[in-house]
Design brief:
heterodimer; A: 210 residues; alpha+beta; Gyrase A, domain 2; 4-stranded antiparallel β-sheet; globular; B: 174 residues; mainly beta; Jelly Rolls; 6-stranded antiparallel β-sheet; 5-stranded antiparallel β-sheet; 1 helix; 13 strands; 10% helix
Chain lengths: 210, 174
Amino acid sequence: MRVVAHLVAFAAVGAAIVYFGSGRSLPAARLPLAPAAVPIRTDDNSQLSLQVEALQREVAALKSVAARPSESSTSSAAQPPAELTTDAERAVEAERHRVYMVGVAQAFAAERVDLKWAGYASSRLATTLQEDDVLRTAAHDFECRQQTCRLRIEDDGSGKLSQRLTMMSLRLMDVFPAATAELVDQGNGRNALVLYMSSQPTPPAAGPAK
Amino acid sequence: MLSRTVQVLGVVFGITLTAAPLSPAGATNINTSAVACQQAVFQAVPSDKQNRVGIIDSGVVNMTNVPTIVICPVPRSPLAAGATSGGFWLDGDNLLNSLVTVQTTCNVASYTYQGVLHGWSGFTATEATYDRFVSLPASMLGFYDYVSVNCVLPPYHDALRTYLGVFRGVTASQ
């Protein structure tokens, strides 16, 4: 009797798991079998400190936005205006991407140099930059290592740079199928776009690599 | 003993039922046909202003005898909480033949709401029918970020009197 009861119990639990575990994944057929972006193993301490730093900056960003006076806040202090929320959310998203790019930069710094790949990638990149009149004239420099090239290129704020870089990427797809980018203040009143262009098919889901 | 087993079963079912609504929701697919694509500007050859692309029932094709870039919108839903990346499926055809090499190069690029490039991920497809998955990390797919697809379509072939590639569309799977 005990055995039968246990068997019934296991069968019921199994049925419950199968029932609640299936039939909920709407587009199962279109989902990849394995996640394309596999989280990179990181050192526990450095990851924790990165997370703490990220949280601190997010809180700081929220505080700075919340402290900013606005017309709506003076007229209706009890109800936060929608604009404030949007600004705060955008600030948090920008900070999240900045922290992500810190990890990407650290991973690049840790890369060894593969002279053969670096030479080939540098040559292709230089040629492609020269072929575009906007990219050619924008001040830029780049460095290639094992599987990543870092390109820093000045952004005049006209909006042309991002367009041209996206088009450039199509010509360099065989060398750099993926890239991550960030706009940085150079401290001289000008901005630059810093790109980490990779020979790997997918940008890292998180950084830095161990 | 049996009543104890029933009690345990009840607890298990209770936990299962309670936890079910808290489990991550299934991904949402948003499909966009490539008939929404448009040719990119600043393609000087043969002409900046020439209407290079054609729309057919199943997507967009290149009607000129040089490779042409098209740009397509990518509607999508916000990433689920805790997601580390978002995925996109790109579909199309290369009309392979014995006369010329045919290939289609595409990328998925994301931009901030201010138009600053976040990055891209892409591929070059040489197969007759492609159904490629690309993903971008979550930090490139913020709530306010924009995503577009850029593809270089193979040219129209004068001798064969046909276009050599159809880009059918993109599915945001997030």
